[in-house]
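wait is this the right file?? whatever heres the structure
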C-alpha cells in the first residue's frame, strides 16, 4: 500500500508509519461513507471501505490492526466491535470528525464486545427526533479506551437514558479527553455513565454535563453506580462534573450510588450542581455510603443545596450543606 510517493511506504523499525502516534505491525484499513465501497480492498484512502463494520471483518484479533475513518464519514448503523486489539481512529476536527450515528432505533448502540479496543476522535450522535436511546455505547470487555470523543445531542428532547454503559464484565475502562453533554431530559433522567461493574475505571480530562436522573437499577447521578456495580480502584483526574438540574428529580447528583463499594483517588477536578433541589453526591435510601473510600485532592465543589444528601460521612470526609 502506498502512503506517500515512496512506492513501498515509510516504516520505522519494521512498523509502517501512517502518521500520528499510532504504529502497528498489523493491517491498516480506511473507511469513507462518502467515497468508499465494500468491494474495494480498503488499503488506502483512495480505495476505502464504506463501513467500519465491514472493515472489522477484515481485521485479525490481537494484531493491533488500525481502521482510519475519513473526515465526514458516517457509520449509520449499529456497530459491534468484536475484534480484540483493534484501533478505530477518526481523521478530522470539529464537525468534520467521523460519526457513529445511531439513527432512529432506540436499541441502537456502539457495542464493545472484545478486549483491548481503542476508539479516538469520533462524534456519537443520533437523529433529532429520537428520544431515550437505551445505551449509546455499551462496554462489555476489558481495557477499552475512548479518547477525544464527543456526544452530540441534536435537541432538548433527544436525550439518551445512558450514554456510556460499563458492564460487570468490563474492567480497566478509560475515558480520556472526551465531552459528554446532555441538555435535555428523557423518561427517568440521564446517566452519562452507568457503572454495572467497572473496577479500575480511569476518567481523565473529560467534561460531564447534564440533567442527572434515576436510571433503572441505579441511584441519581451523571455517573450512576448500579446495585450490581462498584467503583473499586477508581482514578479521576482533571475532570468537570456539572449537573444542569432537574427539578422533578430531587436529589439528583453528579455521582450517584446504590450499593457496593468504591475506592480510589479524585484529583484536580470540579463538581458543580446548578439545581437548588440537588446535591453533589447522592445514594439510594438504603445505602449509607460509609463503605466508600474515595480520596479527594485539590478538588472544588460548588452547589446551591449542599455537597451531599443523607448521612454525614462520605469516604472518610465530612461535608456540610454550605460547602
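ok assuming it is, sequence goes like this
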Amino acid at each position: 500500500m502506498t502512503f506517500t510517493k515512496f512506492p513501498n511506504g515509510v516504516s520505522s523499525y519494521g512498523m509502517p508509519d501512517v502518521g500520528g502516534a499510532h504504529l502497528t505491525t498489523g493491517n491498516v484499513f480506511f473507511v469513507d461513507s462518502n467515497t468508499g465501497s465494500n468491494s474495494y480492498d480498503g488499503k488506502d484512502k483512495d480505495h476505502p471501505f464504506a463501513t467500519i463494520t465491514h472493515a472489522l471483518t477484515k481485521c485479525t484479533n490481537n494484531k493491533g490492526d488500525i481502521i482510519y475513518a475519513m473526515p465526514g464519514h458516517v457509520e449509520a448503523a449499529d456497530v459491534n466491535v468484536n475484534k480484540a486489539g483493534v484501533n478505530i481512529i477518526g481523521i478530522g476536527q470539529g464537525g468534520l470528525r467521523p460519526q457513529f450515528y445511531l439513527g432512529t432505533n432506540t436499541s441502537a448502540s456502539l457495542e464493545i464486545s472484545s478486549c483491548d479496543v481503542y476508539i479516538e476522535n469520533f462524534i456519537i450522535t443520533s437523529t433529532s427526533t429520537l428520544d431515550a436511546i437505551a445505551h449509546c455505547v455499551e462496554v462489555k470487555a476489558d481495557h477499552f479506551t475512548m479518547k477525544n470523543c464527543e456526544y452530540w445531542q441534536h435537541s432538548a428532547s433527544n436525550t439518551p437514558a445512558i450514554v456510556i454503559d460499563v458492564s460487570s464484565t468490563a474492567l480497566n475502562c478509560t475515558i480520556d479527553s472526551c465531552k459528554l453533554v446532555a441538555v435535555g431530559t428523557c423518561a427517568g433522567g440521564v446517566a452519562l455513565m452507568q457503572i454495572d461493574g467497572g473496577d479500575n475505571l480511569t476518567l481523565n480530562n473529560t467534561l460531564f454535563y447534564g440533567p442527572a436522573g434515576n436510571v433503572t437499577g441505579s441511584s441519581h447521578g451523571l455517573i450512576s453506580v448500579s446495585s450490581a456495580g462498584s467503583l473499586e480502584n477508581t482514578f479521576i483526574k482533571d475532570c468537570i462534573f456539572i449537573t444542569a438540574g432537574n427539578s422533578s428529580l430531587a436529589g439528583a447528583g453528579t455521582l450517584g450510588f446504590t450499593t457496593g463499594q468504591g475506592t480510589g483517588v479524585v484529583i484536580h477536578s470540579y463538581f458543580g450542581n446548578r439545581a437548588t433541589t440537588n446535591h453533589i453526591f447522592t445514594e439510594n435510601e438504603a445505602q449509607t455510603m460509609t463503605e466508600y473510600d474515595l480520596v479527594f485532592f485539590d478538588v472544588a465543589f460548588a452547589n446551591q443545596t449542599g455537597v451531599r444528601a443523607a448521612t454525614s460521612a462520605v469516604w472518610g470526609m465530612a461535608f456540610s450543606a454550605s460547602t
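The helical segments are 52-58. so i think its the right one actually
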